[in-house]
Amino acid sequence: xxxxxxxxxxxxxxxxxxxxxxxxxxxxxxxxxxxxxxxxxxxxxxxxxxxxxxxxxxxxxxxxxxxxxxxxxxxxxxxxxxxxxxxxxxxxxxxxxxxxxxxxxxxxxxxxxxxxxxxxxxxxxxxxxxxxxxxxxxxxxxxxxxxxxxxxxxxxxxxxxxxxxxxxxxxxxxxxxxxxxxxxxxxxxxxxxxxxxxxxxxxxxxxxxxxxxxxxxx
Length: 218
Fold this sequence. Notes:
By secondary structure, the chain is of the alpha/beta class. 49% of the residues lie in helices and 12% in strands. It has two domains: 3-125, Response regulator (Rossmann fold), CATH 3.40.50.2300; 139-210, Arc Repressor Mutant, subunit A (Orthogonal Bundle), CATH 1.10.10. The mean pLDDT is 83.
């Protein structure tokens, strides 16, 4: 199956590098390029990509607003943010806007391609270590925390699993922590997707943070 990719970045060299790399990758096909967020939103409606590789800082409509519009649309297109975490203050906002994950621009190009495949397959791309960095970075800010949202309709075990997902643990790590099988941990996560109407694992992390189950200190 070929993954249809839209590249949205205001730097032509970034788009060119990814396009050239994908030209030699039979399962990835660049179906469009955008230099602004507004152009990316328009192209999604025209070419219906599976994944948009989205920059954050672009002129006019930025990547966060574009991601929000794409995620709110009726189509199945998913957004993978490609940014520089150490310099970018908007990563958390992009995930809240509906991105399925993010990568940093100094990663190996092969890893970026692998990330596109992960997102296209319906999974979220956020490494446990990066998840913890996100939580610590944004929870420690002096600005008001996001509104607390109660988590209702889940069992106590599912609440434990949600907390561990929010802390960045993988299914195998959750299984070890709770003394259950990996299959059982995976089943709990799947039920959380349904009960909390979560798009993916990244969305579960956000819910855990906004509900107060996870913070920078616990």
